């Protein structure tokens, strides 16, 4: 089966109806023709166009950059805000909402087109790929918003009865999506009886083994998310997932600009404008044995890739809890100016910045992938499972330590490789990989060396998983919430706790009765979704 490339002109044919607006938030990534002005034409739904539209929507997993800078980095303490953002939650959340429901509508239509095709029996792999993408997006969405329209959503083309769909509980949504992931794992097969997708699969190029590992690894991740609420179901999924293919060494799955001609991952605006963030004290304390501004206490090999010194060449974190005596930041945006590509150290005293920013090269690198899940995360999930003795396995400190160290190693290797391969990176460019001595030294540091105390060891696993998720802050946010603040943090007073996103205002306006029933008229970011209760 030959599919068209990712350039799409037929992507938003089947919107949710009254509860969904007619545009998606695609300004953060560039998919070429997908962003051209909408044409007032009628198109017949086709398998290639619908499949490609859903593949393209996977860029939303990386999150709205403004949302990350304004809310997620602060909530997770992966970074620290040095000023209040001017962005509103409801204005930013609508992009996620619309992206998901556009994809859901297209997925429902695609399934019906496949089922009606005389060659449907040869499209099982295609259907499994579709289920994997949609299950991932569904869980990602419900972890942001909580209860959502699902069973009856995305069906506006079936008539007015579906224009204002009722909400389903997060428990029901996640159970359904996890069942779809299991179906995908069990039905993906490399055999001659299936129509080949090949290079037209912009995610894995038709590699069925990768699709199977993705679906199964997502099962493992989300089983741990729901375990606090449904131990029986979660443990059964964990036990089954551990017997099937999972991501291995060097597997970092996502959308890679280098393999998609029309895709560039533009993220510099995630860190500029009203996205007022710097390296925070929580992260610096997690990566260094002291806060000396010469960086002598830094032991984590990722620190100098993810962050950089201030304008004076000093390592200064912005305090997570600033006081009245905390010096103000001077210039928020100079450290992210394109002029630094050619004039990295040109003296510009008027454009000063007092605190260590997110590394300019990382922020400006448009070849960074939109990651779905990584080998590092899977190793940390395994480490947690063996440290806790869950999912049908006994407590095994030896195995937990092995996976813990493998997770750290995979994360460090990923960042070295990414930084070294970035064409824009010139000053302080890392090697392609750390030396064995550098890696051993890091793993043996007292702050990292696996602790014999089960409670401390579990904290270490969560800490290292949190650091490894810096490029995936939404997943770090989920980790924080599912572990009851088990990730590194300090208490911040007088700041609302972000447990969920508020629903878009359009939902309240156009689907009020169902919105009101789901939220009890009180849609608040501090409300805990089901998996946290």
TrEMBL record:
Keywords: Signal. Gene3D superfamilies: 1.25.40.390. The keyword Metal-binding does not apply. Residues 1-24 form the signal peptide. It comes from the Bacteria. InterPro entries: SusD-like_2, TPR-like_helical_dom_sf. Coiled coil: none annotated. SUPFAM superfamilies: TPR-like. The keyword Signal applies. It holds the Pfam family SusD-like_2. This is SusD/RagB family nutrient-binding outer membrane lipoprotein. It comes from Flavobacterium gilvum.
């Amino acid at each position: 089966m030959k599919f068209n490339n990712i350039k799409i002109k037929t992507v938003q044919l089947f919107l949710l109806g009254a509860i969904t607006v007619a545009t998606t938030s695609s300004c953060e990534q560039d998919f070429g023709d997908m962003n051209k002005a909408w044409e007032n034409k009628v198109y017949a739904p086709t398998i290639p166009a619908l499949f490609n539209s859903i593949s393209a929507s996977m860029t939303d997993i990386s999150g709205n950059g403004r949302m990350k800078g304004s809310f997620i980095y602060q909530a997770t303490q992966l970074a620290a805000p040095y000023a209040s953002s001017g962005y509103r939650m409801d204005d930013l959340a609508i992009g996620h909402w619309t992206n998901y429901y556009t994809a859901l509508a297209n997925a429902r239509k695609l399934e019906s087109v496949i089922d009606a095709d005389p060659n449907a029996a040869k499209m099982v792999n295609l259907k499994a790929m579709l289920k994997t993408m949609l299950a991932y997006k569904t869980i990602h969405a419900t972890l942001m918003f909580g209860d959502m329209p699902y069973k009856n959503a995305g069906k506006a083309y079936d008539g007015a009865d579906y224009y204002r769909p009722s909400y389903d509980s997060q428990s029901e949504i996640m159970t359904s999506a996890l069942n779809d992931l299991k179906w995908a794992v069990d039905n993906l097969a490399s055999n001659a009886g299936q129509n080949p997708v090949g290079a037209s699969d912009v995610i894995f190029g038709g590699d069925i083994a990768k699709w199977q590992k993705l679906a199964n690894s997502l099962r493992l991740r989300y089983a741990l998310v729901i375990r606090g609420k449904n131990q029986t179901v979660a443990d059964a999924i964990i036990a089954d997932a551990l017997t099937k293919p999972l991501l291995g060494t060097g597997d970092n799955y996502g959308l890679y600009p280098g393999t998609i001609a029309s895709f560039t991952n533009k993220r510099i605006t995630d860190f500029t404008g009203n996205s007022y963030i710097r390296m925070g004290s929580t992260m610096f304390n997690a990566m260094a044995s002291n806060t000396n501004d010469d960086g002598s206490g830094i032991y984590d090999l990722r620190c100098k890739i993810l962050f950089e010194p201030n304008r004076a060449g000093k390592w200064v974190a912005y305090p997570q809890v600033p006081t009245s005596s905390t010096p103000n930041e001077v210039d928020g945006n100079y450290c992210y100016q394109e002029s630094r590509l050619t004039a990295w150290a040109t003296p510009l005293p008027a454009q000063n910045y007092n605190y260590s920013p997110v590394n300019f090269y990382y922020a400006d690198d448009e070849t960074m992938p939109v990651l779905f899940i990584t080998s590092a995360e899977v190793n940390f999930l395994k480490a947690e499972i063996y440290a806790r003795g869950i999912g049908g396995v006994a407590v095994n400190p030896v195995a937990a330590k092995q996976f813990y160290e493998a997770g750290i190693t995979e994360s460090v290797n990923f960042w070295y490789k990414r930084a070294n391969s970035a064409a824009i990176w010139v000053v302080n460019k890392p090697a392609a990989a750390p030396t064995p001595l550098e890696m051993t030294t890091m793993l043996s540091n007292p702050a990292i060396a696996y602790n014999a105390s089960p409670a401390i060891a579990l904290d270490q696993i969560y800490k290292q998983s949190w650091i490894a998720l810096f490029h995936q802050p939404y997943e770090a946010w989920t980790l924080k919430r599912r572990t009851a603040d088990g990730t590194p943090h300090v208490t911040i007073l007088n700041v609302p706790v972000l447990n969920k996103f508020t629903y878009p205002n359009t939902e309240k306006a156009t689907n009020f009765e169902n919105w009101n029933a789901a939220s009890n008229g009180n849609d608040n970011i501090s409300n805990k979704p089901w998996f946290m209760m």
